[in-house]
Amino acid sequence: MEPRAAAARAAVFGYFGINGTALALWVAHIPDIKRDLDLSPLQLGAALLVVAGGALAAMQIAGRLIDRVGSAAVTRVSGVLLPLTLLGPAFATSLPWLVFSLALLGAANGLMDVSMNGQAVEVERRYERPIMSAFHAVFSVGGVVGAGVGALLLSLDVPREISLPVAAVVLGSAAVALRCRLLPKVAPSDTDDAKEEGAGAMGRLPLLATLLGCVAFSSMVVEGAAADWGGVHLQETVDADNGVAALAYAAFAAAMTTGRALGDRIVARYGSVMVVRWGGATAAAGLALVVWSGHLVPILLGWLLAGAGVSTVVPQIFTAVGNLSTDQSGAALARAATLGYFGFLAGPPLVGSLADWTSLSTALLIPLLLAVTVALSGPLIRRAGAGGPTPARTRAAAHPDVSTTAAHTDGPPPAVHHTIEPSGEK
Fold first, then answer.
1. Sign of torsion over alpha carbons 365, 419, 316, 104
2. Which end of the chain is less enclosed by CB atoms within 10 A, N or C?
């Protein structure tokens, strides 16, 4: 593997970790900010909604920017902006100030989310094996680190006016240090042949990106339901105390992080189609245990299975979407990321609304059914990649002396090939 690709991979790991750490540090300080500004639950909820709005709006801009200047350029800027937006909540003294600050934080996160995933797709094209899941695992680890550091600083009574600015400087400096290692935008001449071969996919790119985004939506509804309703369901079902109730999401998060850490090896062995198919089925089986078992241990096992099942779905969706096109990947990724993020936001309120009419166990049938749709989406992922440019085609275009046939037969299968037709997959 060329040193430039290895260096870029390490840099993208860093950006994913920065993103997860920065967001977790903000979340850890939410109770402190609520108390200091004397916010009502309604006011805090409205302020948090602004984060989502800023992210969703920025994702649309991110796609166009990536297609114009490349994912590396957008990642470099947003990787510094996101840590700096922690300064707003750190010094917020009123609700309007907080709302404005959170709009900037959400926008920076939206830009960084799409661009760093776009860069991850470009790095994966240089490799001859899947590497996308590991990036998302690092994001999860960054979240654990940020939450732990935030909790420690709060327990030591370190004011957020000190802790968050220091974190902004540290994380921002790390982002600056990584900026030169990212892969530049591929020159159009390098992708002409690939675009010509993938012309059939171009006309259907928006539709395929939307359909794949719907799969991400379904997966992230499961994530949102686990985060917001897992503990509440455990309390209502087995009368668990707060400490035990927290184990529901802890089991889900631990399984998700582990699944993402192991995901690339699993995808390399079985292919994305099989991984998404069985991931959705595993999540559905786990949620069935949550809904119908009625006992502590099976419910915790159910959340564990649900986390493991959806852990690799979104990374494979981003790989499939990013490889639909080499020159329109930004817009496609933005579309899929927006739908996925919307699922994480809209899923919990939808579950809560249905729970008001029936029961929480019945309402959790929503993520269960959506997990089933994920299990049925394998053929869509195969079809989405069938017409897109593969790394072998791109390399052959850039290096005519290397034949496409040789690229497919010498060594491990190319990165996009593994997402479409793994050995033995029908």
1. negative
2. C
Count of residues in the chain: 426
User: What would the two tokens of residue 75 be?
Assistant: 């990642």
Name the CATH architecture for the domain at 199-420: Up-down Bundle (1.20)
User: How many Cα atoms sit within 13 Å of 63 on the Cβ side?
Assistant: 20
Distance CA 14, CA 24 (A): 15
* Predicted confidence (pLDDT) per residue in 66-124, tens digit: 999 999 999 999 999 999 999 999 999 999 999 999 999 999 999 999 999 999 999 99
CB 130 within 8 A of CB 124: yes
Say which amino acid occupies 225. Answer: A
Structure-token pair, residue 314: 């979104």
DSSP 240: -
Q: For residues 149-184, b (16+ Cβ closer than 10 Å) or e, as one string?
A: bbeebbeeeeebeebbbebbeebbebbeebbebbbe
Handedness of CA 343, 348, 351, 354 (dihedral sign): negative
Listing DSSP states for 162-207 in one string gives HHHHHHHHHHHHHHHHHGGGSPPPPPHHHHHHHHHHTHHHHHTHHH
Assigned token pair, 270 = 């079985």
DSSP state, residue 85: T
Residue 186 is given by DSSP the state P
Burial 81-95 (b: 16+ CB within 10 A, else e): bbbbbbbbbbebeeb
Model confidence pLDDT, tens digit, residues 40-50: 878 888 888 89
Cα–Cα distance, 136 to 134 (Å, whole number): 5
CA torsion 336→374→134→416, rounded to 10°? -70
Domain 3-180: top CATH class: mainly alpha
Cα distances (Å, whole numbers) of residue 208 to 25, 215, 298, 320, 322: 35, 11, 37, 10, 11
